[in-house]
């Protein structure tokens, strides 16, 4: 019995938390941008978080949303993409590593709002309560694209 309990505790301890705490942090001409507050980690002046972007119209390759791990230097909000998962309207995904290039956001841009939120500058973010970013986008007139 002790062995079974030890195995179960090991499995549950190794399983990442499934809780998500999404905030809508920006809306742009292209779509809506969300950040999962539970995904944010910080080491010194660098923070990393998960963004979910849902586009109004599918991209040329048919993608309707992307989940991206973003690393941000909180001193100046410069950022780099660590990984992307792109989804088409059928929910099929394609994963790619980020290019690692450090960028500076344009003032007032969606990525500036995303980077700022990841670094603790919450701005006008709206917490989603009881809905996923995909459900929020369906309800929000700013994103009319089919959502996977």
SSE topology sketch:
Layout: H1 2-14, E1 22-27, E2 31-43, E3 46-55, E4 63-73, E5 78-88, E6 93-97, H2 110-118, E7 126-127, H3 133-139
Antiparallel strand pairs: 1-2, 1-7, 2-3, 3-4, 4-5, 5-6
Helix/strand/pairing category:
alpha+beta
Q: So how many helices?
A: 3
Radius of gyration: 17 Å
Mean pLDDT: 83
Largest sheet: 7 strands, antiparallel
- Count the strands? 7
Strand order of the largest sheet: 6-5-4-3-2-1-7
Shape: globular
The name of the CATH superfamily reads Surface-adhesin protein E
Our count of domains comes out at: 1
Sequence stretches where pLDDT stays below 50 over 5 or more residues: 1-18, 142-148
Helix content: 10-25%
The CATH architecture would be Beta Barrel
Highest-level CATH class: Mainly Beta
Strand content: 35-45%
At the fold tier of CATH, the topology name is: Lipocalin
Q: Distance between the terminal alpha carbons, to the nearest Å?
A: 43 Å
Order of helices and strands: HEEEEEEHEH
Description:
- The protein is of the alpha+beta class and 148 residues long.
- It has one domain (19-139): Beta Barrel (Lipocalin).
- The protein contains 3 helices and 7 strands, in the order H-E-E-E-E-E-E-H-E-H.
- A 7-stranded antiparallel beta sheet has the order 6-5-4-3-2-1-7.
- The longest helix is centred in the N-terminal third of the chain and has 13 residues, at 2-14.
């Amino acid at each position: 019995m002790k062995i079974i309990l030890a195995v179960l505790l090991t499995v549950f301890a190794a399983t990442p938390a499934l809780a998500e705490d999404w905030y809508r942090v920006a809306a742009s001409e292209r779509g809506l941008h969300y950040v999962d507050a539970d995904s944010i980690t910080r080491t010194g002046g660098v923070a990393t978080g998960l963004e979910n972007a849902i586009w109004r119209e599918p991209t040329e390759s048919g993608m309707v949303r992307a989940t991206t791990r973003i690393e941000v230097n909180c001193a100046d909000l410069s950022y780099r993409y660590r990984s992307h998962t792109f989804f088409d309207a059928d929910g099929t995904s394609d994963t790619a590593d980020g290019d690692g290039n450090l960028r500076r956001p344009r003032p007032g841009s969606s990525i500036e709002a995303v980077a700022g939120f990841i670094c603790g500058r919450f701005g006008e973010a709206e917490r989603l309560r009881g809905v996923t970013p995909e459900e929020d986008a369906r309800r929000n007139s700013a994103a009319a694209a089919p959502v996977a």
